[in-house]
Amino acid sequence: MIAQRHLLVAGMFLLAMLLYVDRICISTAKEPIAARLNLSDQEFGWVLSAFALGYALFQAPMGFVADRFGPRLTLSAVVTLWSGFTGLTSAVTSLPMLLVVRFLFGAGEAGAFPGAARASYSWIPMPERGRVQGVIFAGGRIGGAFALPACASLVETLGWRETFVVLMLVGLVWAAVWLVWFHDDPAQHPTISAAERELILSTRQQAASKVEGSGKLTANAMLGSANMWLLMAQYFASNFTFFFCLSWMFPHLKKTYSLDAVTAAWYSAVPFLAGAMGNVVAGAMIDRIYRGGRWTQSRLLPAVLGFVLAAGGMIASNFAEAIGPAVICLAIAVFGADMTLAPSWAVCVDIGRRYAGTVSGTMNMAGNLGSFVTSLAFAYLLVWTGTHHRFFYVAAVLNLLAAVLWLLIRPQQPLVREQA
Length: 420
What we know:
Blueprint: H1 4-28, H2 30-37, H3 41-57, H4 59-69, H5 71-89, H6 95-109, H7 112-123, H8 129-157, H9 160-181, H10 194-203, H11 219-223, H12 226-247, H13 249-256, H14 261-291, H15 295-317, H16 323-339, H17 341-352, H18 356-385, H19 389-405
Helix pairs in contact: 1-7, 1-8, 1-9, 3-6, 3-18, 4-5, 4-7, 4-18, 5-6, 5-7, 5-9, 7-18, 8-9, 8-14, 8-17, 12-16, 12-17, 12-18, 12-19, 13-14, 14-15, 14-16, 15-16, 15-17, 15-19, 17-18
């Protein structure tokens, strides 16, 4: 019999895939959308940033919603919401309309990972937390890799408007299945075995607190936490690097190396697959080191290694003159950047506990302000300097600074002290 928590992880893996398929489709459809709406590269940068801004601003509020109402209702609602705006993307006829729709699409997607973090807190034993976070985020990267050639082909075959409608229908199916199957409390799930129920309840983080619900998370606790500020700052750097792949990598490779859309999509998929590997490797490292009794090091070592690799890959990409070496360098950068995700979200669950949705949402809000900056920085630095090199150097510096910040993060320090 398949363990119910493994089905949960599979569901969140598919959620992450869907999240990135819907998110990246617009990059593959850049040319027909820009031609239809007469958009410049700078205007299209604002379209990409509109999503990132909506996604960033609603992270903390949606994390609070996940903590308050539970991940069952929250995830069903947000997937339905963002799928609706995915479908509405097909109906846009002007730049202002597209900006509004993509902003609201981002706001809808904002609840996905905070909701998943809250589900992980209730369902996932601590010794499995790193691998689970790695698998979830690997789903997003595999979704991105799949989306590039698949969406490019769909756009060429069906048209860009029809492609967004298809993606909307897929999202509505996921939301319906999640609402029927998932339960916020594993103890209440009708098909969970007694052995798995006991394993989860005895090894999840709540077991460390004898009186669950005895403390309240306040704004002062959040703003006064060095861990919170450090997590937000390092996640800004991580997203600054990765969001390039979600936004500008496909059109950048297509234009720079004179590729057709499908060929550019296959090359662009390689860094996403490298990112999936980075997530899995980091997740395995976290759990292996944690089982050795080194809680802090289990989060710190994968993150620092990841940021160093990301910086090296971004710098090396400036010296790659052919498509093959360029993609390899970007793959190294994304592998490294994605190694930082599992430890980042693991620490959010560590210090946030039953407020994991709010804490992870706050971190992700800061991170996606990095995404917002990325969408504009690449387009405008290219215009101002005539080269993409400046952008990659800025990304490398941010990654190295983030590696230093990780030396100060302490996952054993919860934001709310529970009564024993």
